[in-house]
Amino acid sequence: MTIPHDEELLEEFRQKGFSEKRDRREGFAWSLDFSSPYIATAIHAGHNVSGSMLPFMNMTPARRLFEEDCATDIMIHGLSNCVWGLESRAVYDLNRSPELALPLTPEKFWGATVYKEMPLPELNRRNISAYEEFYRFVGTCITFILEKFDFCIIYDIHSYNTIRQLEKRIFNPPIFNLGTALVDRQKWTPQIDLWLELLSKIALPGMETTVAENHVFKGEGEFCRCLTGWDSRILVLPTEVSKIYMDEMDGRLYTDVVIALQKGIGDAVKAHQAGLAF
């Protein structure tokens, strides 16, 4: 399968070997030096809603924040290759298929009414275009990494609300959950097992680190589905962090825990790369 990409941007990567920017509509940002065969992503970190969309928005910023993956961009900053969302998933969701990406009805956003009135058709088209642009960008990055290293690992970092798990009677949800339902588990066993082991070693203040595979989530989002389908040399590791680092209801961050997660995930990515055998 051909990986979607932008040939002009790919040539820029080949010439410069690094890039640090935001896209033209500031839907996402990146910092890449292509020194290693991985990209750490935080596709739901964004909270922004453009001025043209705000008049249609029904959800308060606090309610949006509950559904977003707050601070996951901080957790990956400082790594050699990272890409993170700037625009809220209440505008378009990068982890859903194109036909489900716009949360225009409550069933597409956990039963919540995102918009008080339907956004104009041209705005919906623009948002889908931004969604497609993101995937072309990621495809371009991966294409370049495959040219250099012949494999690519995506550390796909998300977060989840423990409140929802308690409502499902999951009383001890893990701090880290790795979803592998869409991954060739047999082919990538050493890499997956090493990642689980490294996650379990992350030290967090005042709490015991717990790790599970396919417990609260199975990693069945569109991002993993799409990238895994592009090329068999791509390994996506959909990693969920429980929101033990913040107050889920008011959005207040626990700075010491966020810093510990940034260090721990950063160290885990570097150790994972150092320990890989292909």
Automatic annotation (TrEMBL):
| Family annotation (Pfam families) | FGase
InterPro entries in alphabetical order: N-FG_amidohydro
The molecule here is called N-formylglutamate amidohydrolase
Source organism per UniProt:
Desulfamplus magnetovallimortis
